[in-house]
């Protein structure tokens, strides 16, 4: 296979991994927007919180690097659950303290408060871990499947010699990232589609007052939304830390902007839209980084966002909010 | 006399008030110089910066406060003003235009960009508008950073190779400063006697004049037909449209005029600093300006003036200088207290939003007062 094609395949893999973690963050944006119509600017910083808190928990446990045996099969999921619990609780607390008193205030008030919370969190991370690039130890064992005997022999039976594909790599880390993000996204979709709470969420998103009149405890639904959104962002932060092994206190802002763009691209308030948007943005980012230059990626992503909003403001799959309502 | 005793505030009404304010403004730099000597804190430079932010906030107030269009990327216009000034006066580009001409061109260029950025967003409302402006606010600094070494190829042919427009993240320096050499010739002074350089007192007066131009324009606009149209759009766009207010032209005017204020302020700021970098126009700047407008009271021109001076000086003097001086000495010798800046703004924002969501100095709503028709006037209408 030619080098160009190999580069392309590798970019697709990168795009999918980026899309995977962005999807987890974008879901939180879109759920909160769907219910209380708030662009939760602090949401990206919860992703960063997931990164930092899981790092701290790992440091406390101090397992052998890389994880193996029981550490890999029990400690890792336990840390993930604890990270989700803590990040979800943080998001819930932020909502109760900062946004809840402003439910009836003008729209600008909670929006700016969210920005305030975001800056506050970033300042706290900078104090907590230092305003520098933080290394995340390589806890997750890395093995390239392209060098695995079984994979090589499997492909050679199909008549392909993948040892020649020197540029392409697909590691255990990639698989781990997909293995966490895709089931979680599917689980959340099922949760919203099939459960009673999910139904109540959809009802609250459609018409909060009507939902209240039907006996739905909207406050509890909003709290649940913040908790679930925060938990997903938290686990995304942890998985991304294990994957990329580095981060800094502003990482939430960057990731948040891209995830938010994904949510808007797919149609804000739309769960499937957020996931689709995240994978599209992930692909665009990977392709732009590789073919145009990473310094132009922001321009490309935001350019696409502007064009999308101008020509189809409801996003690819359609927003649950009509523009006129805003 | 009795009036003054009965209403002490009336002493500060009418022309006397303006005279007092003028004396205060002129004497302020002297007082600040004394204070600087006493306390070792940079005051005048911070007040200059605060006044630039006030001029910027006045522009944002037109867009957000008067016309009700949420702009999360207003620093883009600030950047456009500053960089236009940079390109016009940076020696490497060989234009080196005069300061007095360049600042007006910057205001004009920013206004044009206001229309360019505003035009696609006209059909959008609320949050969608906020997102588009946010995206523009991110694109402009990224463009500035990337246009330092720009190569454009089209179908294998190189059209532009390694062209340096903005000098990338290194920024543009030195930049043009106001040139008063014609006055030196006129009064027979030594060459360089009126070389302003970075003299903070000179810049104080230059920025006070800039802010006054902006403030005067804002007040006149607020009371004009256009100002009332903005407020009508803000309150109810559909109703305003029915009453004959053209929403498209009115919104574009808000974007253009708001941007032009910021272009002017950006140019003066660039000249004062003598150097500009893409980092100066980050998202945080847009948010800081929005905080000034919202905390001061959206739509209130005097409120934004006073609130802006208070908030920006608080930021530049108290948070950036006094606080580190107190804490870094003994309590936290190693710790960078300045990183607490956004903690303060975050908490302040939350507290004020909860207890006073309309801002500290909200506009007086005199204009909405409706005088009920009396019987005579109603008859008068019938008879005529």
Topology:
The complex is a heterodimer of chains A (326) and B (384).
Chain A: H1 3-36, H2 43-61, H3 70-99, H4 108-129, E1 134-135, H5 149-157, H6 172-194, H7 196-206, H8 208-213, H9 218-244, E2 246-247, H10 251-266, H11 271-293, H12 297-311
Antiparallel strand pairs in A: 1-2
Chain B: H1 2-6, H2 14-39, H3 44-66, H4 75-89, H5 99-118, H6 126-146, E1 150-154, E2 157-163, H7 181-187, H8 200-222, H9 225-235, H10 237-242, H11 247-273, H12 283-296, H13 301-331, H14 341-355, H15 375-383
State the assembly state of the protein chains.
Answer: heterodimer
Mean pLDDT of chain B: 83
* Radius of gyration of CA atoms of chain A, rounded to a whole number: 20 Å
Instruction: Going across the biggest sheet of chain A, name each strand in turn.
Output: 1-2
- Fraction of residues of chain A in helices? over 70%
CATH topology of chain A: ABC transporter involved in vitamin B12 uptake, BtuC
Distance between the termini of chain A: 51 Å
Number of domain modules of chain A: 1
Tally the beta strands of chain B.
2
CA gyration radius of chain B, whole angstroms: 24 Å
CATH class of chain A: Mainly Alpha
Q: Please provide the ordered H/E string of secondary-structure elements of chain A.
A: HHHHEHHHHHEHHH
First-last Cα distance of chain B: 46 Å
List the total number of helices of chain A: 12
Descriptive account of the structure:
The complex is a heterodimer of chains A (326) and B (384). Chain A is mostly helical and 326 residues long. Chain A has a single domain (3-325), classed as ABC transporter involved in vitamin B12 uptake, BtuC. Helices cover 72% and strands 1% of the residues of chain A. Chain A starts with a helix and ends in a 15-residue tail after the last helix. Residues 322-326 of chain A have low confidence and may be disordered. Chain B has two domains: 65-281, no CATH class; 282-363, no CATH class. Chain B has helices at 2-6, 14-39, 44-66, 75-89, 99-118, 126-146, 181-187, 200-222, 225-235, 237-242, 247-273, 283-296, 301-331, 341-355, 375-383, and strands at residues 150-154, 157-163. In chain B, helix 3 packs parallel to helix 8 and helix 3 (44-66) crosses helix 12. Chain B is globular, with a radius of gyration of 24 Å. Chain B starts with a helix and ends with a helix. The A-B interface holds A 37, 39, 97-98, 101-102, 105-113, 115-120, 122-124, 126-127, 131, 253, 257, 260-261, 264, 295-296, 298-299, 302-303, 305-306, 309-310, 313, 323-324, 326 and B 64, 70, 120-121, 123-128, 130-132, 135-136, 138-139, 142-143, 145-146, 283-284, 287, 290-291, 294, 298, 335-336, 339-343, 345-350, 353-354, 357.
């Amino acid at each position: 296979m030619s080098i160009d094609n190999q580069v392309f395949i590798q970019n697709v893999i990168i795009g999918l991994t980026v899309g995977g973690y962005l999807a987890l963050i974008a879901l939180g944006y879109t759920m909160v927007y769907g219910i209380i119509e708030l662009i939760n600017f602090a949401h990206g910083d919860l992703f960063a919180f997931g990164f930092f808190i899981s790092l701290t928990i790992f440091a406390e446990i101090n397992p052998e690097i890389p994880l193996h045996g029981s550490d890999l099969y029990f400690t890792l999921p336990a840390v993930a659950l604890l990270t989700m619990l803590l990040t979800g609780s943080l998001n819930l607390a932020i909502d109760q303290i900062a946004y809840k008193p402003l439910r009836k205030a003008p729209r600008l008030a909670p929006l700016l408060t969210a920005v305030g919370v975001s800056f506050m969190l970033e300042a706290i991370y900078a104090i907590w871990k230092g305003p520098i690039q933080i290394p995340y130890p390589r806890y997750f064992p890395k093995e390239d499947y392209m060098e695995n005997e079984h994979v090589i022999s499997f492909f050679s039976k199909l008549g392909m010699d993948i040892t020649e594909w020197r540029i392409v790599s697909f590691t255990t880390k990639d698989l781990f990232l997909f293995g966490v993000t895709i089931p979680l996204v599917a689980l959340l979709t099922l949760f919203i589609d099939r459960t009673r709470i999910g139904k109540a969420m959809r009802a609250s998103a459609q018409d909060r007052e009507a939902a209240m009149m039907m006996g739905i405890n909207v406050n509890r639904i909003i709290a649940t939304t913040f908790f679930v959104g925060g938990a997903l962002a938290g686990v995304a932060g942890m998985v991304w830390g294990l994957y990329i092994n580095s981060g800094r206190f502003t990482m939430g802002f960057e990731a948040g902007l891209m995830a938010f763009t994904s949510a808007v691209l797919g149609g804000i308030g739309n769960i499937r839209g957020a996931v689709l948007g995240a994978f599209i943005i992930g692909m665009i980012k990977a392709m732009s980084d590789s073919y145009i230059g990473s310094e132009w990626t922001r321009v490309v992503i935001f350019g696409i966002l502007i064009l999308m909003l101008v020509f189809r403001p409801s996003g690819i799959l359609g927003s649950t909010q009509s523009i006129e309502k805003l | 006399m009795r009036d003054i005793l009965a209403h002490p505030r009336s002493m500060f009404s009418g022309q006397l008030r303006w005279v007092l304010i003028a004396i205060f403004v002129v004497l302020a730099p002297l007082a600040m110089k004394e204070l600087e000597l006493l306390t070792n804190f940079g005051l005048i430079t911070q007040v200059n910066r605060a006044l630039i932010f006030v001029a910027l906030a006045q522009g944002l107030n037109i867009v957000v406060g008067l016309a009700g269009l949420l702009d999360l990327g207003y620093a883009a216009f600030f950047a456009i003003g500053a960089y236009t000034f940079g390109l016009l006066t940076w020696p490497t580009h060989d234009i080196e235009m005069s300061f007095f001409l360049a600042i007006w061109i910057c205001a004009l260029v920013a206004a044009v960009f206001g229309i360019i950025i505003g035009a696609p967003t006209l059909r959008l409302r609320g949050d969608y508008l906020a997102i588009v402006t946010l995206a523009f606010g991110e694109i402009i600094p990224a463009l500035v950073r990337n246009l330092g070494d720009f190569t454009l190829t089209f179908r294998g042919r190189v059209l532009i190779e390694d062209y340096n427009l903005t000098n990338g993240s290194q920024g543009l320096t030195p930049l043009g400063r106001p040139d008063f050499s014609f006055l030196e010739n006129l009064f027979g002074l030594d060459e360089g006697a009126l070389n302003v350089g970075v003299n903070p007192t000179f810049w104080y007066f230059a920025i006070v004049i800039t802010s006054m131009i902006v403030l005067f324009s804002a007040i006149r606009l607020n009371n004009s037909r256009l100002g009332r149209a903005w407020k009508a759009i803000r309150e109810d766009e559909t109703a305003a449209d029915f009453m004959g207010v053209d929403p498209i032209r009115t919104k574009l005017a808000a974007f253009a005029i708001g941007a032009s204020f910021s272009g002017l302020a950006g140019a003066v700021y660039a000249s004062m600093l003598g150097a500009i970098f893409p980092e100066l126009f980050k998202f945080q700047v847009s948010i800081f300006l929005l905080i000034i407008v919202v905390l001061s009271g959206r739509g209130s021109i005097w409120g934004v003036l006073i609130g802006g001076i208070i908030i920006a000086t608080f930021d530049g003097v108290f948070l950036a200088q006094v606080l580190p001086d107190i804490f870094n000495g003994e309590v936290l010798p190693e710790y960078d207290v300045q990183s607490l800046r956004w903690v303060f703004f975050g908490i302040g924002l939350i507290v004020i939003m909860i207890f006073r969501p309309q801002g500290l100095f909200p506009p007086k709503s005199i204009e909405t007062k409706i005088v009920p028709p009396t019987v005579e006037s109603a008859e008068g209408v019938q008879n005529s």
